[in-house]
Each structure stands twice: as C-alpha cells, then as structure tokens.
Design brief:
heterotrimer; A alpha/beta; B alpha/beta; C alpha/beta; B: alpha/beta; Rossmann fold; 2 domains; eight-stranded mixed beta sheet; five-stranded mixed beta sheet; C: alpha/beta; Pyruvate-ferredoxin Oxidoreductase, domain 3; 6 strands; about 35% helix
Chain lengths: ~260, ~350, ~190
C-alpha cells in the first residue's frame, strides 16, 4: 500500500552543478552560452576538480565566464587565451586549466595562438563557442560566418570571393599531433546537449590523463544578432549550421605519445 | 669574485638569481643571448623556457605564469616590444607583475640592429592603450644590467606592476667585470591574489574589464595612487661632478656612458661640466633636475635618438635655462664617440 | 687591489669575421680582469654570421671606465685590407698601428705620425703549422708592444676557456703568442 511507503521528498533530477554560480544569466534570451557554461561546470564537477581548476576567459561575450564559473579565472587579451593558458599550465603543472573562447577570438585574432598551443600539445581543455558572428560587438562577420549570411559587416551576405570561406576549426585542429581530442557538438536540442556534455567531459579527461590538448567546438545560437527569435535560432543551428559544421569526433587519442 | 660577462648574459643571470623560473620569448637581434642563456640554464634548475610562436604569444604566456604568482621575465627588442604592448596593458590593468627587458635597436619599422634609445617614449609613456604606467630602469653598465634586473623583479612584485628594463644593443653586447653579488632583497607582500585554484579559499579573478557604474573610474584612480607611491619611492639617478657645474649633461644608458668620458675630458680642459644620469626613466627624477636648474647655467641632453627624453628635461628644468640637444639615432657602427659629445660641450658651454 | 701607476689603455682590433678578432679581444679583456683592472670589451655585431666585418674595442684602466666606445684608440690592430683602410684615420695621433701584412697592403698607409708594426701574421702562423693561429701571433705582437698584462695571465685565461679536448690547443696558442712577442721585440719596437 502506498501509505506504507515513506513520502518521497521532491528531488531535482538535474540539480545545478556545484561549479556553476547561482545567479541570473545576463545573456540575451535564447543565447546558448548559459547551457554551455553549465556543461563545462558539469565536467569540472564530474572530475571533482573545481578547487584545482583555473579558467581563462577571452574577449567577447565569452568573457563573462567569470561571472558564472565558481573557479579561479584569468581574463586574457583578445585571442590570447590559449597562450595565457600555456603560461598557466607551465607554472601550475598539477592544476586543471581550461579556456572558453568565441569564434572571433579563437578563429580570427587568436589563430596563431590556438594552433601553436595545440601543436605543443599543452594539456589544457579548450571550449570553443561558434555562433557564426561577433556577438558582443554587435553582430559583425566572423571567420565562421556562413556563406550568404548577413551580418553588420556583410550586409549583402558573406561572399567567398571577398571574404573567403567559413573555417572549420575542429577538423583543422584534429590534424595537429599535439591535439588529443577534437570534436564538435551543439546544444540546440536535448540529444545534442547530452552528446556535447560527453564531448566536454572527454576534453577535460584527455587533459587529466596528460594525453594532450582537448578541444570542443560548440555550435551556438545568437538570436539577437541573427535577428531571429530563440526558437528560429535553434532551427537555424539545425538547418544551416550543422550541415556545414558536422557534429562528431574528429580525433580521440587514447594515450599520450612517448619518446 | 668578478667575471667578465656580456650585458645580455648578466640580465639572464640576474633573473635566475632573483628566482625567476619562467621565460618565454621569440628570437630578435640584439637580445638573443638572453633566451639562449636561459634555454641552456633553466633545464638544469627546473625553470621553464619556451620559445613562443610570436612576441604576442610570449607576452601572454608571461601573463599566464605571472598570474599564477610566479616570477616571469620576457626580453625582446623594438619590433617585438611593440607586439607586446597589448599584453603589457592588460597586465597593468590586471595588476600582474612581470619583468620586460627591451634591448633596444634602431627604428622605426624594421630599422636596424644597431644600439638606439628610440623606444624611450614607448617605455616611459606606457606604450600600450589605456591609462597606465610602468616603472622603467635604464642600466648603463653590465653591473647595472644585473642589479637593475634584480631590482625590477622586486619592484614588480611590491607594486603588482609590470616593470621595464630599458637597455640597448651596446650594453647587451659589451662585456665588463660583473660582481655576482646577491643584491639585498626587499620584504615583499605575499601573492594572495595569485590564481592557483580555489582550494581553501574563495575563487579569485584577475581581470581588467570593468563595466559597472564608475568601476573603471575607481580602478584607474586606484592605479594612480599606486603610481604616486612608486614616484615617491623608486626614483633613481646618478650624478657626476654636478655640484659646481655650469653645464649639466643629461643622458641615460649607453649615451650616459659615452658622455661620462666626454664630461671627464671637459673637466680636464677646465670646463665646469657635470653629468646627470636618470636611472629610473619613469618615475623621472624631475625634482632633482629642477634643483640643478638653480645652480647650472645650461643643460645638454644627449640621446641616441632625435629627441625624446629631452621633453622630460624641459618639463623639469623649465624655460629659464637653455636646454641644448645632441641626438644620434645611430646607424650601423655609428655610436657617437666621446669626442663628438665633447665638441658639443665646448660649443654650448655657457 | 693592485698598486700601480694610474693607467688607461685602449685598443681596437679589426678584421673580418672568422679571423678570431673577437676571440683575442676577449682574451685580452679576461686577462686584464684577472689582474684586477677595470675593463670593457665592446664588439661590433652585424647581420652576417660569417665573412662580415668584425671589430672590438678593449679598454683597460685602473679606474672606472666611461665610454667603452673610443674616439681615437691609441692602438689599432688591423687584420684585413678593408679594416686597414677604414680604421687607419681613427688612430690617436702618434699611436701604434699593427697590421697583418699578409692581407694588408702596407704601402697604402698614409699616416706619418704613427708607430707601425707590419708583420705577415698569416704567413708566420702557416709556417708554424696552422694559419688559424694568425690572430694569436697578432695578439702576441700587441702584447710585445703593450705589456699591460702578463703572459701568464693570458695562459691562465686560455686554461679556463679551453677545457676538455680543446685543452690540447693551449700550447700551440701560447707558442703563437710568444712568437708574436718575440718578433716585435726583435724589430726593436
């Protein structure tokens, strides 16, 4: 009989991760940064390394990482997060170092830094948020902007003859020897969120195991600058971004190189 | 015991002695002896030497290691220092201490590799964007390359600020006897601000972004107060026979070194000439110059450029006394000779 | 500290890269330091790794040295024609010019006030068994004329710098230096 059973306390099936600070998000409605922050926080909790973790924030909307992550955070100059993380990694060999960078930051101004950090195989985890434009500065063209996509600096659409092609960072970095793990996920629907949670976790795991650099690109919606409603933005991720930026794992090295 | 040591090597040795174990750099003449020395010596003592992909990468690696509370140094020359200005500005804004060594070469642009003092403005006026200052020390001997680098680490840590050591190709390449003494070390505050993971304390943040209402206003004034403390405590200079001098030669670094001989030769001719050598270029010893302006009849500023520090001399001395300028932005093998400076002394002697 | 008369001496050595100019300048400076003099050694540095001009200035004094850069060196050692042409005019009036007559056209010198020591350093070194020691013969010629530092000090510095397998070159170096000293003493100075 049900009366015999003690009454079950209501319980959150998916509580807020310890590493995620409990405060209202100040990102735009429909922005995916909040979800991605949570996934990073979950990975840090999963490995129980919050007190050992140091985040390196970049420039753009991703800088606000420090408002939400309950870890030490260093704010790096635009594009330089992976170089600053290198300095951190070398200085603190037993800490867990992660960067959180947007597409303008990592794939344009910081290209040299991420490529050489990856090539050195720095044992850091890099979370790369690709929303196909410069969000904070008002929606200008990013290196990841899709062909034909209208931004404030490509008012007639991105044209490859003038602007070149959208760049696929996860695939490119996978070619580098120092990269242990490179993958792309999205957070536009629950199945993708769950999958991306695994990817980010693995990006931390390869660091903790000393295998090399862990890299996860996450496709993200930017409804405000795309000029779309949140639900339309989610649809755009599925219909326009994913076909060009396929989800998946491009490299997963199982053990570290040895001389 | 003294050893015959190259100026650049003296800087590397001082860094090791000062406990610096993190160096990131990128090759550029005429400072390569510094990274080469540390690439050789650091592995023996557990230090980290890393050749970065660029000076931009290197300065941010310094930023990372220094943010972790470690003593870190970087060296370069003109063009490379230009690329580092962004990082120096961020470190100033985030109050992350580090030592930046500029072994100056000639500019602008690619310029040349000969010694120069063309980066005076860049070093003393902040160099990068925003409202900040960095202490600048200008050695003029191999011993000072050592001593002032050592000091730079202490000053950086005491005030949580990047500090510049401004030398040049002549000082970097020349050899002199070096006394490998351990200069007195200051009592320094603990680096409680360092990012080391939040075990046992609240998470910490090092940043330079302040978007809240009047936050940046307060931050800038807080920095200003710190700069005032530096001004009141870190001014350094050397004087040679200035007491009765009618003409005071003002020069720093290599130019001061060469001028010293010219001043001594002028004395032999019976000319009452002295040398005033600022060692800290920021903060500038303006008060002492102002005092000298009461007794001296004229000033002669000698620089290896077309006139940069002369502006600070003008601000310090005022308009009552004539200020002459002799500038030699050198090309290859064209450092001024003492005799050329002596000729100037004779010409402008009051 | 040494107790000597007030002393100041400067020398410029010049030639092309690979002749070992900087090496002998450095050797002299190290020996001077060993004898507790103040000393500065200022090398030229260029963009070329080999074959370009190479020169250095060594100042030795028993008081603080001002400029390591010297307007008119009292002694000039030139090992190549280019160096001879470029630096002859710089020598201090009534100074000493030592020239490597193997590579320098001695007849082209125009100064009349200078004391000249012209010796075929390369030829002498070749006769001794290895032309690479020409720089050491030249250093010997300098030391014969300006015995500011003792030969033993030079030997001591060589010993400190040439260690391990390189130590076998010390006797040959010393022999070349002694030869230089001997040659200028013979010429009467």
């Amino acid at each position: 009989m049900s009366q015999d059973k003690p009454a079950r306390e209501p319980r959150l099936v998916n509580p807020r991760p310890r590493t995620l600070i409990d405060r209202p998000s100040h990102f735009c409605p429909g922005c995916h940064h909040g979800i991605i922050h949570r996934l990073v926080a979950e990975a840090i909790d999963y490995f129980n390394v919050r007190e050992r973790a140091i985040g390196v924030a970049s420039v753009g909307c991703s800088v606000f990482l420090y408002d939400f992550m309950d870890t030490d955070v260093l704010e790096a100059p635009h594009g330089r997060a992976s170089a600053a993380a290198t300095g951190m990694r070398r200085a603190l060999p037993d800490k867990v170092i992660y960067t959180y960078q947007g597409d303008g930051d990592l794939a344009a101004i910081g290209t040299a830094e991420i490529i050489h950090t990856a090539n050195r195989g720095e044992t850091i985890s890099v979370v790369f948020v690709n929303n196909t434009n410069y969000g904070m500065t008002g929606g200008q063209m990013a290196p990841t902007t899709l062909l034909g996509q209208k931004t404030t600096t490509t008012p007639y659409g991105r044209d490859f003859r003038r602007d070149g092609y959208p760049i696929r960072m996860a695939e490119m970095l996978a070619t580098l020897e120092g990269v242990a793990f490179s993958a792309r996920g999205a957070v536009n629907k629950p199945a993708n969120v769950r999958r991306t949670r695994e990817l980010i976790r693995r990006a931390f795991e390869v660091q903790l195991k000393g295998i090399g650099l862990g890299f996860v690109e996450v496709l993200s919606a930017c409804p405000t600058d795309w000029g779309l409603k949140p639900l339309e933005a989610i649809k755009r991720v599925e219909e326009e971004l994913i076909p060009y930026y396929p989800l998946g794992i491009f490299k997963d090295k199982k053990e570290a190189d040895h001389l | 015991m003294k050893k015959l040591i190259k100026g650049n090597d003296a800087i590397a040795m001082a860094a090791i002695e000062a406990g610096c174990r993190f160096y990131y750099g990128y090759p550029i003449t005429p400072q390569n002896d510094i990274p080469e020395y540390l690439a050789r010596e650091f592995p023996k003592i557990g230090g980290t030497f890393l050749q970065a992909e660029s000076e931009i990468g290197a300065i941010n690696m310094i930023l990372g290691s220094a943010a972790a509370g470690k003593r870190a140094m970087i060296s370069s020359s003109g063009p490379g220092i230009s690329l580092m200005q962004e990082g120096i500005s961020y470190m100033s804004g985030s109050e992350i201490p580090a030592v930046i060594v500029n072994i100056q070469r000639s500019g602008p642009g690619l310029g040349g590799i000969s010694p120069s003092q063309g980066d005076y403005f860049q070093a003393t006026r902040g160099g990068g964007h925003g409202d900040y200052r960095t202490p600048v020390f200008a050695p003029s001997s191999v011993q000072e390359m050592y001593d002032l680098t050592f000091l730079a680490f202490d000053v950086a840590d005491e005030y949580r600020n990047p500090v510049v050591v401004l030398a040049d190709g002549m000082l970097g390449q020349m050899k002199e006897p070096l006394d490998l003494r351990h200069p007195p070390q200051r009592e320094l505050p603990e680096k409680t601000w360092a990012l080391t993971g939040c075990a046992g304390r609240k998470p910490q943040l090092l940043k330079s972004l302040y978007l809240g209402h009047r936050e940046l206003d307060k931050h800038c004034w807080d920095l200003w107060k710190k700069y005032q403390r530096i001004i009141s405590r870190e001014i350094r200079f050397e004087e040679v026979e200035t007491k009765d001098a009618d003409l005071v030669v003002v020069a720093f670094g290599s130019a001061a070194r060469i001028s010293k001989t010219a001043v001594k030769d002028a004395r032999k001719e019976g000319l009452k000439v002295g040398l005033f050598r600022p060692i800290s270029l920021w903060p500038y010893p303006e008060q002492r110059l102002e005092e000298l302006a009461k007794t001296a009849k004229a000033f002669l500023v000698v620089e290896l450029n077309t006139g940069q520090m002369v502006e600070d001399v003008k601000m310090s001395v005022g308009k009552d006394k004539p200020i002459h300028f002799y500038g030699r932005p050198p090309g290859a093998d064209a450092l001024p000779m003492p005799i050329e400076i002596l000729d100037q002394i004779r010409e402008v002697y009051p | 500290m040494h107790s000597r008369e007030k002393m100041y001496s400067d020398v410029m050595m010049a030639g092309f890269g690979g002749q070992g100019i900087l090496l002998i300048g450095n050797l002299l400076a190290e020996a001077a330091l060993l004898e507790e003099y103040e000393v500065t050694y200022l090398p030229s540095y260029g963009v070329e790794m080999r074959g370009g001009t190479a020169n250095c200035t060594v100042v030795i004094s028993d008081t603080e040295i001002g400029s390591p850069q010297v307007s008119a060196p009292e002694v000039m050692l030139v090992m190549s024609q280019a160096a001879a042409e470029r630096f002859e005019p710089n020598v201090k009036p009534n100074g000493l010019l030592i020239a490597n007559s193997t590579l320098v056209e001695v007849g082209k010198f125009s100064r009349k006030d200078l004391e000249m020591v012209c010796l075929p350093f390369n030829k002498i070194a070749t006769e001794m068994g290895n032309s690479r020691f020409a720089n050491m013969v030249a250093l010997g010629a300098y030391l014969g004329k300006r015995p500011l530092v003792k030969l033993e000090s030079i030997g001591q510095v060589l010993k400190e710098n040439l260690t391990g397998k390189k130590a076998e070159f010390i006797p040959m170096n010393m022999k070349a230096i002694e030869k230089g000293i001997e040659l200028v003493s013979k010429s009467g100075g």
